[in-house]
Each structure stands twice: as C-alpha cells, then as structure tokens.
Design brief:
The structure holds two protein chains of two kinds.
Chain A lengths: L1 H21 L3 H56 L3 H59 L2 H48 L6 H4 L5 H9 L2 H14 L11 H6 L9 H6 L2 H6 L1
Helix pairs in contact in A: 1-4, 2-3, 2-4, 3-4, 3-6, 3-7
Chain B lengths: L1 E4 L4 E3 L5 H17 L5 H15 L1 E2 L10 E3 L6 H9 L7
Helix pairs in contact in B: 1-2
Classes of the chains: A mainly alpha, B alpha+beta.
C-alpha cells in the first residue's frame, strides 16, 4: 500500500527539510516554524467558522421552508373548504416540493455538523501538538549545540508538520462537503425567488409556469391522496379514489352549496397540462 | 511502528504487527483494483479496527512521525480508487 502509506510523510519531510535549509540559525528556524504553526491554527479556526456559517444558512432556509409548509397546508384546507379544488391541488403540490427540499436540507445540516465536530477535534489535537512544540523548542534552544539542534528540530518539526498536514486534509474534506451542499441551498433559493412558496391567494387560481414545472416535480399520487384526505377531514365527501372526488362532490349537493367546485376541476388548463 | 489514521489519532504498534497489517491492506487494495465496491467498506474498516484495537494511542502532546498513514475512516470507494491511482488525498 505504498500509495497510501508513504505519501503524507514524504510531503511533510520534504517541507521540513526545506525549512531547515532556509535558516542557518536553529533558534531562528524554531521560531519561524512555530509562527507558521500558529498561522495554520488560525486557518483551521477560520475553516470551522466557514462550516458554521454554511450550516446557519441552511438552517435559516429550513425554518423558512417549514413556515411555507404550514402556510401552504393552511391554504390548501381553506381552498378545499371553499370548494376551490384547483387551488388546493396547487398548494399541496408546492407543499410537497417544499417538504422534499426540507428533507434534503436536513441531511446536509447533519453532515455539516459532523464536519464541524471533526474539525473542532482536529483543531484541539493540533493545538496540543503546537504547544508541545513550543515547549520543546525552548529546551532545544537552551540545551543543544547547533549540530545536535538540527536533528532535534527536524524530529519535532516533522511530528507537528504531520499533524498540520492531517488537519489540512480534514479541512479539504469539509470544504468539499460544503461545496456540495451549496448546490442544494442555491436550488432552494431559486425556488423561493421564483415565488414558489409565496402566498397562493395573491396569485389567484390561474396556472402559471411554476405550476407546470412543479407538477412534474411533485409526486402526483401523494398530492391526490393528501387532497382526498383533506376533503374527508373537512367533511367534503368520502375518501374514495381521487378520480371519483369531483363526481362524488357533484352527487352530494348537501355538502356544499357552491356547485362550481366540479366545474373548476375540469377547466381546460388543468386537464391539458398533466 | 507508528501508524496514523488520518483525521483521528496516531497509534504505536509492535513491529511484529506489520505482517498482519500488510495482509489487511492488501485485501483493501485487491478490492479497489478489482473495481467492484462489494466488500470494500468491511475490508477497510477491518484494517482501521485492527490498528485501533492492537495499537496504543499516542498522546496529543507527543511529537512523533508516523511510519504509516492510513486514509480517514469516511473514505469512499471512489476516493480509494483515486488514492491508489491518482494524486491521492493529501493536499500539497
């Protein structure tokens, strides 16, 4: 497993020997090396902050989508009560999309939380190593001759260098995961910007481009089921198969005086697009 | 022999353990080279578990260089393929 085993050590050793070549004075090398380590530690802190920021953005989107789900559900119920089946269906389709996005966001928030935890652990380990290096460098400066110091510095610097490389790797993985989740966050932003989860009553019951796209996105049977359930809960006909709903409603004039409901359901725009 | 599990810890193992480690590593490599993901996760986990179970963890304040560095536990099959063939996981 030469590919796995040697590489990181080799990179670290190459960097350390470059460092040792640079300075003649061991004390100077040690101090320079230490300041580089502290710098790296700052970078790790910044990396953690980036992950936290990304996570917060997702959580805000989650909160806003959750509100949309509640709002759309309420609107669907109101629409069913007033016999506007088209509007109810549209609201449920949008609710469906919001719920799907919500699940995706949830998975990613969990993933980012794991990354945050890993980076925090890495940071603590690196901090401990750097502290050990700081102690050791003072001992080396005080006790060893220049020739001997080179050897000791090399040992200490390689040890802490390896930890730095390792935390660098952990950061890279966190950045990759953050990049992946940006795509979903952007998709949700686009849906929101397009007014997907806006107040439906403001849009009226007319079907627009968004509706046609959403119809393809949302799972139709689920919407049908939910609509049927909502109708039965609100006392509007039985919970029969979705196809029977308009007929059932029409056959029960007692349920609702507004007899436009079945007519609405058969508007040309509705049938022609599915 | 000092072994690091990337993203976790360094472990000190008796030199005599290297043979068993090699066997476990070779099992992982064989799967990756075969190009089929079946068994990869188990083989890779066995390798890391062996190190964790048979090694002594090195303290965070000790400055040791590893003889062997293993990839992080969340390594995917695709990443393993790149690790063996391409430029690998370690950023320069």
């Amino acid at each position: 497993m030469a590919g796995l085993t040697g590489r990181m050590s080799t990179v670290v050793k190459a960097k350390v020997s470059k460092l040792l070549d640079r300075a003649e004075d061991p004390a100077e090398t040690l101090d320079y090396s230490y300041s580089k380590q502290v710098e790296q530690l700052q970078n790790v802190k910044k990396g953690i902050a980036d992950v936290v920021t990304a996570k917060k953005r997702l959580q805000m989107q989650e909160a806003s989508l959750q509100q949309s789900v509640v709002k759309l559900d309420t609107q669907a119920r109101q629409a069913v009560s007033s016999g506007q089946e088209d509007l109810a269906r549209t609201a449920l389709e949008r609710k469906n999309v919001a719920q799907t996005e919500l699940q995706g966001l949830d998975t990613q928030v969990t993933e980012l939380e794991e990354q945050q935890q890993k980076l925090t652990d890495s940071e603590q380990k690196l901090r401990a190593k750097i502290e050990a290096f700081r102690t050791k460098k003072e001992v080396i400066k005080a006790q060893y001759s220049a020739a001997e110091a080179q050897v000791r510095i090399s040992e200490a610097a390689t040890g802490v260098g390896e930890q730095m490389a390792d935390v660098g790797l952990a950061m890279q993985r966190a950045v990759d995961k953050t990049e992946n989740m940006k795509a979903r966050a952007d998709a949700v932003s686009e849906l929101e910007a397009a007014g997907t989860f806006e107040d439906l009553t403001a849009l009226g019951s007319g079907e627009d481009d968004i509706d046609r796209q959403l119809k393809q996105l949302s799972s139709q049977p689920q919407v049908d089921d939910e609509l049927a359930k909502m109708k039965s809960e609100l006392g509007q006909g039985g919970a029969g198969s979705p196809a029977q709903i308009p007929a059932t409603a029409a056959g029960q004039p007692a349920a609702e005086p507004a007899s436009e409901a079945p007519a609405d359901a058969q508007q040309p725009g509705e049938g022609g697009q599915s | 022999m000092i072994v690091r599990i990337s993203g976790e810890d360094q472990y000190r193992l008796a030199d005599g353990e290297s043979q068993r480690l090699n066997e476990l590593e070779n099992a992982v490599i064989a799967i990756v080279e075969g190009g089929r993901e079946d068994g990869f996760a188990d083989a890779f986990r066995s390798l890391l578990d062996y190190v964790r179970a048979n090694g002594t963890r090195i303290g965070d304040d000790e400055l040791e260089t590893s003889d062997l560095i293993l990839p992080p536990a969340d390594l995917t099959f695709a990443e393993a393929g790149r690790e063996f063939t391409g430029e690998g996981l370690v950023p320069d």
